[in-house]
Request: fold
Amino acid sequence: DTININRTAPMKVVAVYDNGGNDAVVAGPQINSVEDLRGKTIGLQLGSQYELTVVKMLQSAGMGIGDVTIVAINPEDALAALESGQVQAASTWEPYSSEAISSGYKIIYPQKQLYLFPDLIVFHQSIVDKRPEDVRAFLKAWFEAVDYRLQNPEETRAIAARYLGVNIEDVQPDDNLKLLTLEDNKKLFDLQEPDSIYFITRITMDYLISIGSLAQQIDPLELLDPSFLP
Reply:
């Protein structure tokens, strides 16, 4: 979304606030590898960025979209589609992937989680240019809040419940979603790291170009700016 918006409204990514959670492809017991999906049907949410998960999965086995049949299903319908035989694999996320696993299905991709869809802190380029100290102050406060949340989980649950006007039992942490600290961000913005945010950005741009959503590569160094990290 940030890359697409940046085409008409220049943006700056100044931090990453979580890893986006777990998305995965689940399959039936007869599927033991990605290669076993050749000629089979895969269900996914068409028109979403999560198509990229299936693309990367197929590429990992030297395959492409033309080697499988793709049908549209919603993530919450993955288990039903698998059980009915409509699909032999489905792209989904929690809690639906756990539901499928408890029913005898398994995750076949990713074996090692590669977080392709991190959630970002993004400012318009004009704000970054005109109010750099405000951006730094925002990030300083943000990471102080993240640290406090991680160190005081029950107290911050109570704060969230009061703010939302719900019972504290209704505020539960998502164990599959990792809030990222300042140190996590410094590592993500390290160009030498193999799974850095620059690497993920290039993967995303390549995909957007392949589907015609983006005309050409943009320089990740122009879009991503860690200089405001405290």
Residues 132-151 form the longest helix (20 residues). The two ends are 26 Å apart (CA to CA). The chain has a mean pLDDT of 91. The first strand starts at residue 11 and ends at 18.
